[in-house]
């Protein structure tokens, strides 16, 4: 009798456990975990560090510290978007490549007042960063830096071209940097190269727009990723910039397309150059890779070889100032697609929490770029974005930590 009761109790326990487990089941494959984790035996996603949520589709953002990032608004200088690079030679030195506006101009005058600068931090990758040097004068904008093992140098992708239309008072002026846009010089993607992160050579304009009626006549917002063998990244050699086996010159280039002069829809496409960063780049699709409106892509390949993007979303309640839906994630098993756009969970919003207990709800938050661990596991540690506060013409670059490892990297 006693044994029988125990059996019943055990059976009902198992039944309850089964129903509880199945009601919590959220995945049947790793795709259901946004490829940011694996679908476990119980049907629950086990997220990689830096990701959270049922589907591992939200960045695990921890409170940021003040001061951090690159914020020169106190002295009247605005910046927009930035990329962190660890110095391989000097311990505790980090570089930040950012767009910064001359003449004290605010975000509205990004063209033609933007130049690309290098800032430095000796207090960890989250900063705060101070100005070190100009990398490229006006008009140069939207820097995205990657180390290319095939070329054994850093490559800085950006938009712009030298222009003489800046005046002392902030004024928008029509100018062009190539086909696709005659209004503000945003169309056309160029590359600088450097062996030491300090001296940069102009390598050429590697992707041009055109003056047709195509959805992507205007090409901008470059996001490169060298496809050098993933075994390189697993050993850490990729991050350290050393040569390693598994050579390929292939370079991935994700970009935002827009109709001529960008009066309309902004969407995303992927291009590849098999022959090195110089191009020519072949688009993987003639159509955008997904229907949703987005700009500012950032692309990377994870430790399992899957591809990911962070995006500035232009959906309702997102986009330019309405918020909070500004950050989205997309993923694919191969860069050739199909790409899935994560429309269920926000990757990040306009709200930023600080460790002094304050929260800022920014007016605009765009241009996501990640800083990864250098152990070869490509763990996202820090997220940089451009932000514009409410009721301010100014803008700056913030850095927030991701997951436990990011909080640790951020320091005290
Ligand atoms: C950026 O600097 C401005 C001006 O000093 C300051 O008001 C603002 O709080 C700073 N932002 C952050 C996140 O600390
Ligand atoms: C600016 O540069 C253009 C093209 O080189 C030239 O035609 C024009 O005269 C220049 N304008 C000024 C004000 O220097
Ligand atoms: C990804 O696509 C490329 C181009 O079609 C192909 O060469 C490669 O083998 C694919 N990779 C995987 C892991 O399927
Ligand atoms: C997400 O997109 C899918 C496929 O287009 C659609 O079926 C679904 O309703 C969307 N979900 C949300 C929350 O918009």
UniProtKB/TrEMBL annotation:
Residues 23-57 form the EGF-like domain. Keywords: Disulfide bond, EGF-like domain, Signal. Pfam families: EGF_Teneurin. Residues 1-29 form the signal peptide. Coiled coil: none annotated. Disulfide bonds join 47-56. This is EGF-like domain-containing protein. The keyword Cell division does not apply.
């Amino acid at each position: 009798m006693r044994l029988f009761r125990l059996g019943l109790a055990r059976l009902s326990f198992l039944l309850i456990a089964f129903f509880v487990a199945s009601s919590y089941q959220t995945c049947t494959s790793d795709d259901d975990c946004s490829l940011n984790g694996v679908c476990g035996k119980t049907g629950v996603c086990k997220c990689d560090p830096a990701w959270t949520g049922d589907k591992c589709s939200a960045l695990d953002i921890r409170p940021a510290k003040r001061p951090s990032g690159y914020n020169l608004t106190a002295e009247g200088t605005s910046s927009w978007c930035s990329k962190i690079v660890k110095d391989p030679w000097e311990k505790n030195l980090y570089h930040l490549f950012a767009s910064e506006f001359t003449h004290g101009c605010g975000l509205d005058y990004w063209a033609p007042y933007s130049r690309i600068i290098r800032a430095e931090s000796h207090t960890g990758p989250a900063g705060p960063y101070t100005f070190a040097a100009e990398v490229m004068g006006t008009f140069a904008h939207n820097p995205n830096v990657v180390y290319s093992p095939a070329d054994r140098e850093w490559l800085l992708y950006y938009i712009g071209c030298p222009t003489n239309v800046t005046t002392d008072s902030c004024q928008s002026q029509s100018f062009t940097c190539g086909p696709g846009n005659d209004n503000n010089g945003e169309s056309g993607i160029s590359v600088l190269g450097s062996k030491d992160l300090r001296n940069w050579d102009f390598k050429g304009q590697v992707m041009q727009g055109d003056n047709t009626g195509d959805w992507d006549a205007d090409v901008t917002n470059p996001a490169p990723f060298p496809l050098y063998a993933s075994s390189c990244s697993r050993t850490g050699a990729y991050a350290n910039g050393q040569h390693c086996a598994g050579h390929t010159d292939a370079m991935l280039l994700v970009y935002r397309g827009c109709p001529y002069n960008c009066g309309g829809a902004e969407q995303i496409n992927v291009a590849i150059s098999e022959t090195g960063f110089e191009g020519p780049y072949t688009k993987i699709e003639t159509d955008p890779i997904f229907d949703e409106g987005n700009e500012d892509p950032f692309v990377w390949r994870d430790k399992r070889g899957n591809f990911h993007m962070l995006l500035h979303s232009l959906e309702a309640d997102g986009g330019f100032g309405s918020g909070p839906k500004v950050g989205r994630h997309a993923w694919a098993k191969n860069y050739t697609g199909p790409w899935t756009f994560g429309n269920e969970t926000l990757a990040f919003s306009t709200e930023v929490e600080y460790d002094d207990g304050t929260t800022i709800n920014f007016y605009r938050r765009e241009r996501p770029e990640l800083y990864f661990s250098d152990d070869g596991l490509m763990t996202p540690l820090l997220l940089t974005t451009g932000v514009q506060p409410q009721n301010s013409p100014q803008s700056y670059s913030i850095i927030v930590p991701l997951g436990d490892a990011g909080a640790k990297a951020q320091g005290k």
